[in-house]
Each structure stands twice: as structure tokens, then as C-alpha cells.
Amino acid sequence: xxxxxxxxxxxxxxxxxxxxxxxxxxxxxxxxxxxxxxxxxxxxxxxxxxxxxxxxxxxxxxxxxxxxxxxxxxxxxxxxxxxxxxxxxxxxxxxxxxxxxxxxxxxxxxxxxxxxxxxxxxxxxxxxxxxxxxxxxxxxxxxxxxxxxxxxxxxxxxxxxxxxxxxxxxxxxxxxxxxxxxxxxxxxxxxxxxxxxxxxxxxxxxxxxxxxxxxxxxxxxxxxxxxxxxxxxxxxxxxxxxxxxxxxxxxxxxxxxxxxxxxxxxxxxxxxxxxxxxxxxxxxxxxxxxxxxxxxxxxxxxxxxxxxxxxxxxxxxxxxxxxxxxxxxxxxxxxxxxxxxxxxxxxxxxxxxxxxxxxxxxxxxxxxxxxxxxxxxxxxxxxxxxxxxxxxxxxxxxxxxxxxxxxxxxxxxxxxxxx
Length: 419
Known about the structure:
A seven-stranded parallel sheet has the order 3-2-1-4-5-7-11, sandwiched between helices. A two-stranded parallel sheet has the order 6-13. It has a two-stranded parallel ribbon with strand order 8-10. It has helices at about 1-30, 40-50, 70-85, 115-125, 145-170, 210-225, 250-260, 275-290, 320-325, 340-355, 370-375, 385-390, 400-419, and strands at about 65, 90-95, 110, 130, 175-180, 190-195, 230-235, 240, 260-265, 275, 300-305, 330-335, 380. With about 425 residues, it is an alpha/beta fold. Strand 1 (about 65), helix 3 and strand 2 form a beta-alpha-beta unit. The protein is about 45% helix and about 15% strand. Helix 1 (about 1-30) runs antiparallel to helix 7 (about 250-260), helix 5 (about 145-170) runs parallel beside helix 6 (about 210-225) and helix 10 packs antiparallel against helix 11.
């Protein structure tokens, strides 16, 4: 009888392992987000109608170029510009037409690179507003090791900014350059709330290549304001999320579906995020500020853009709606101390870098050290300057945003779970 029980338990264990592997394989095949729901599209149409008076003819009278507009953020910005009647929207990227996201109707897609000044000149022909939404996050994302990756991150993010500024200057039609920067440039790895945009750059303590390059690129952008024939503004989003996000949500969803979500870091931690449409709205308000002939109050400045509220990221609050819809129960059973997570992320990042550098295996860490700090620190960024200068107030709060994202995430992964 004992031998029979052992055989049954072994069989159940093997079946569980096999099922987990097959689930991982099915989830790995989910490459594209689900389409936006008709209800959400209708809601956006209503929002645009109610807020159109704040924009006047700022969008309809200008021609736009979005650099890096085939990604998540750029696609949302392009879609909103078109929906609000922008005269012409052009998107430049290395791939030309988007492959993950659906092309936005009436947008002109052109192939080009920030590394090629000629393609920038060509893409900026007759353009009035340039929106720079392209970035290289590193490999792994927000990594701090590897000289080659450091050089690549610097060349794309900083060298790219230098070439964009030169192309804007050469193209006499450009009035405004909007740079999608990051709150990383003023995040100092400590517990800080309501950090103001006037805070100094964290140049001397920044850990990852991406943040260091973002600081240099933003500084170049803002210092060029009014000196080269056009105005410059930087928007600093924090944790961009929303339906069809395809960078961090697949990592969270796949890991939780395969291994469960029974651990947490802190239930007291609080941080802010930004719903992607709130960022698109802030972008529109910058253009409207230029239109109102009061651009002197905002040129050469950076603006943190958030949802204006706080969530418990270290306790999985942002992801609970998505995981619950997929049948994953978020249980706060095992606490992983933030200090341990940061140390583990740091050592695993270094260890996996050595494996990758020696050609043994290319495995990315679940979290880099920089990402672990962001996930566990109490931190928030003030949107007071954006409110005072631009009139920015979030159109979606975090609860609404995470619920909307959850609806799309559930439709994205449902087919893989039903097989």
C-alpha cells in the first residue's frame, strides 16, 4: 500500500511539473496585446469631447512627428492626436510600421533611426512639433553592468538626443520638442514623497545605464530651449501602464500564473504610477501652452506626470485586478524583506551578467537592482508644477487605470489558459 501511494504521489508530481511547463510554453506564445474594448474606445471619445475646449486649435493646426511612435506610449499618443484632429501625424521608427501594435489609421509611418541624421532631417520635413518617445532601456532593462551595453545605451539615448536637436534646428518649421523623459532622473533610492521637479539630478548616485543616459539627454534637451529656434519641454512619467502594455505586465502575469503569487515585500509601501492616457493628455497640454502664446512659463522645464495618487506596489496592489481576472489569488503569505530583495536582485544581476558575458547562457534577471529599489521604496513625485504651468490634472485615477488594464490583460491571456 505504501509503495502504491508513493507511485501515485510521484505521478501527481510529474503531472504537476508537466502541466507547469506546458502552461509556460502556452503563455510564451502570447506575443501581442488584445484589441482595446469598444467600451473603452467609446469612453475615450467622450473624454476627448469634454476636454477639447482646453486645447483649442493647438493640435488641429500643427503637424507632428513622433520618434519611437510604434511602441506602447508612442502608439497611444499618435492615436490621441489623430482622434483629436491633428493636421498630420508622422511616426518614425527603426521598423517602420508597427508589428506588435495595430497601425493607427491615417498616420504616416516612416523608417528611420536616431542614429542617422539624414533620416531625422527627412522625417522632420514640414513638422511643427517633435515628440521624442524613443528610448533604449538596456539589456537587461535598467541594468548596470556591461561596457558594451553602457555604450549602446549612451549612444541611443544621449547621442540620439544630440542628433534630434541638430535636426530640429536645421528644420526651420519645428516650434517645439517634447521629450518623454523619466522620474528616474530625480529618484535617489531613498524613501521620499512628493519629490518636486526642481530637485537635482541624481547623477552621482544613479546605478543603471538607462538612468544615467536619461539624465544627460534631458539636460541637453532643456538647455537647448529657445537657443536653437524652438522650445523644449521634458515630461517625466513614472511607471507607465495601461491596456496593451507589453513590457512589465507579461513578466508579472506569466510568473504569477506559473508559480503563483503568495509572496510580498511590504504592505505599507506606497508609490505612484501614470496611466498612459494621462501622459498623452499632458503631451497635448504642452502643445496647447505653446499655442496660447504663454510658452515662456514652461519652456526649458521638466514636468513629473503621475495619476496623482498612491498604491501599494510592494504588496501587488497594481496587479491584483489583472491577476484576479486570470484566476490567480494574491496571497500575502511569505514576506520578502525589501533589503533582501534588493540584495538578491543586485547579486543575481551581476551573476547573470557574468554568465551572459562569458557566453554560457543569456538569462535576464527578474528584477535588476534599480528595479528592486523602485518596487520597494516609498516614493512619489509632485505634479504641482504641471498643474500650475500646464493645467494638468489626471483624467484617470489609478484604480480606474488598473481596472481598464486588467480587462485587456484577461482577454489577452484567456485563450492560452483555456487550451
